[in-house]
Structures are given as structure tokens and as C-alpha cells.
Specification:
By secondary structure, this protein is of the alpha/beta class. The protein has helices at 29-33, 90-102, 118-129, 146-153, 168-175, 186-193, 226-229, 237-240, 257-263, 269-282; strands spanning 2-10, 13-18, 21-27, 43-48, 54-59, 65-66, 71-72, 76-82, 106-112, 134-137, 157-161, 202-205, 208-211. It binds guanosine-5'-diphosphate, magnesium ion and zinc ion.
């Protein structure tokens, strides 16, 4: 048996990366019939017979799995935004970070296109670096930050998130030119995006993998999860014990330590505003 990782799946055929190279595999019948779907990112055992036919025999236990995009065994979410063009949408950025927190995934924030707006990039870094999220300022034009990004991806499986046009594919090309991913201007890409559905594929980057299929832009919170939401804002946690009321939702309660920290400038106003926005979505006040 050889062990490997599923990097691509198409029409019942799977590409598995092993220490001896890539194998084109089919699935053993019992795996085809099982309710559990085989996912990109799954670690598997493959048998190879004398004629060279490779078959996935077994899926090794999964650490985690994501529904959108469908990937297993994820280490982190790489949240990419641009300093400009398109201007950063912090509501969307926070939505993605909250979703990652609720799934128990680490996040790395990348502020790309620093060549277009360095002060803007630094401002984002000061907000998100303080939370703290590892925040990397990059530019595919000047190659700033590419070495640090490489280090952040090393040996991990990452899922990309972030809007169209921020430079996700350009960054992957900068890390591994052999990928030759298509890049383009925002307007043309949006039009094309309507007509193409891409499959998830794990791209090899520095002994790590990146799934270049953005998902993750919606926040799926069940109504009634209002109390849970605050735990997705790591910078709130050190204050909440000091709130006067147990179950304080840090909206306008008296003696709320989170609101006081906000007033002192220790919590970014945009972060608290988005917390309130998301709270309203999961627990509308009448
Ligand atoms: N000025 C500047 N433009 C960039 C940078 N990175 C990417 N771009 C451009 O932004 C556009 C969108 O890039 P792309 O990689 O396709 O973005 P994606 O949709 O996130 O994959 C392309 O025209 C790129 O040339 C950067 O660091 N600086
Ligand atoms: Mg792209
Ligand atoms: Zn409070």
C-alpha cells in the first residue's frame, strides 16, 4: 500500500500525490458506494497492481472537512484582500474570519497590492495584526512579503478566501510559477465567473497545498447562536469576564468591559460594528 493525498477528483477518477509521484486512481467499490464522500485533501491508501492500475482502498481518518469548498484536512484559511483595486470590504473580511473561527480553523490575513496603497495596507495590518491574526503585506509586482507568505504556507493545507480580483491567483503564481494560473482584471473575471464552475484542486506550493477555490463568503450561523458569536472575535475574550452581566452581548449593556475597551481604542470600531451587524443577523432585535 502507498499512502498519499487526493489533490484532484473528476468523474470518479482521483489524482493522488504520493512520495513516489502522482497516481491516477479509481475508487474501490465499497468506497464508491459508501455514504461518505471522498474529498480532495483526504489522506488515502492506494494499491497498485502488476499492470500499474492504482486503486484507492481506504480513506484515513479526517481531521476536519469543509463543505464549501469541499476539502478535507485543512490547516488554515488564507484570507486575501487588496489594499486597493478592489478597495477592501472589511465586512466581508470579518465575515470570513468569523466563519473560520466558528469552524475552529486558523486564519492568515494577506493584504495584497501593497504597491498601490502602502498606508492602507499598513492600516489593515495594524487592525488585524493586533487581534492577533498573522497579517502579511504582499505585492506580486514588487514581490514584497512573498517569502513570508511562503513560510506561512509551508507544510500546511490552506484554503483561499477573498473576493475576485485581489490577486489570489497572482500570489500562487509568484510562489510557484509552474502553476501558470489564469489571472485577470476584475470586470472580465466576474463575467466569466458566471459561466464556469471550477472544481476544487489542491495546488502544490512549497511542501504545502492550497485550494484555489474561494468559498467562504457567507456566514452560516443558525439563529440562536448569538452567544457563540462573540467567541469568534478573539480580541473580545480577554474583556468579557469583566462585564457586569453574565451572558452580556456587548451591545449597550451597562458596565460592559468590551464596550469600555472599544471606547479606549483597544478594540477596532469596525470590528465591533461588524460584530453587531452579524449579531443582528443571527438574533434580530424586535
Ligand atoms: N498592482 C498590483 N496588481 C496586482 C497585484 N496582484 C495581482 N494584481 C492584478 O490584479 C488582477 C487580479 O489578479 P488575480 O490574481 O486574477 O486575482 P484573483 O481573482 O484574486 O485570483 C490582475 O490584473 C493582476 O495582475 C499586486 O500585488 N499589485
Ligand atoms: Mg483567481
Ligand atoms: Zn459586555
Amino acid at each position: 500500500m502507498r499512502e498519499g493525498i487526493i489533490v484532484k477528483g473528476l468523474g470518479g477518477r482521483y489524482e493522488v500525490e504520493t512520495a513516489q509521484g502522482r497516481l491516477q486512481c479509481t475508487l474501490r467499490g465499497k468506497l464508491r458506494l459508501s455514504v461518505e464522500r471522498v474529498l480532495v485533501g483526504d489522506r488515502v491508501e492506494v494499491s497498485v497492481d502488476s499492470s500499474g492500475t492504482a486503486v484507492v482502498e481506504r480513506i484515513l481518518p479526517r481531521r476536519n472537512e469543509l463543505v464549501r469548498p469541499p476539502v478535507a484536512n485543512i490547516d488554515q484559511v488564507l484570507v486575501v484582500f487588496a489594499a486597493q483595486r478592489p478597495a477592501p470590504n472589511l465586512t466581508l473580511l470579518d465575515r470570513i474570519l468569523v466563519q473560520a473561527e466558528l469552524l475552529g480553523l486558523e486564519s492568515v490575513v494577506v493584504v495584497n497590492k501593497a504597491d498601490l496603497d502602502r498606508p492602507g495596507a499598513q492600516q489593515l495590518q495594524s487592525i488585524y495584526g493586533a487581534i492577533p491574526y498573522r497579517t502579511i503585506i504582499t505585492s506580486t509586482k514588487t514581490l514584497e512579503g512573498i517569502t513570508e507568505l511562503r513560510q506561512a504556507l509551508q507544510g500546511k493545507t490552506s484554503v483561499l478566501a477573498g473576493p475576485s480580483g485581489v490577486g489570489k491567483s497572482s500570489l500562487l503564481n509568484a510562489l510557484n510559477p509552474a502553476l501558470r494560473l489564469e489571472t485577470g482584471e476584475v470586470s472580465t473575471k466576474i463575467q466569466r465567473g458566471k459561466h464556469t464552475t471550477r472544481r476544487v484542486e489542491l495546488l502544490a506550493v512549497d511542501q504545502g497545498y492550497v485550494a484555489d477555490t474561494p468559498g467562504f463568503s457567507q456566514l452560516y450561523l443558525e439563529p440562536g447562536q448569538a452567544e457563540r458569536l462573540q467567541f469568534a472575535f478573539p480580541e473580545f475574550l480577554r474583556y468579557r469576564e469583566e462585564c457586569r452581566f453574565r451572558g452580556c452581548l456587548h451591545r449597550q449593556e451597562p458596565d460592559c468591559a468590551v464596550l469600555k475597551a472599544l471606547e479606549r481604542g483597544e478594540i477596532a470600531p469596525s470590528r465591533h460594528a461588524h460584530y453587531l451587524l452579524f449579531l443582528e443577523e443571527v438574533a434580530p432585535r424586535y
